[in-house]
Write a structure and sequence with these properties.
Layout: H1 3-24, H2 30-40
Helix pairs in contact: 1-2
């Protein structure tokens, strides 16, 4: 993917996870969210 698309994916990933939880009842453990956040930080 082009870098601008990859950058957008990185920036919006955490919000998407919260949207999934709200809309679909997709439940995530806090430790999983922390690991995800750590993997996207520069």
């Amino acid at each position: 993917m082009p870098e601008p698309v990859r950058a957008y994916c990185r920036q919006s990933c955490l919000v998407n996870v919260l949207d999934w939880r709200t809309a679909f009842g997709f439940d995530v453990a806090p430790a999983d969210l922390a690991a995800l956040q750590d993997s996207f930080l520069p």
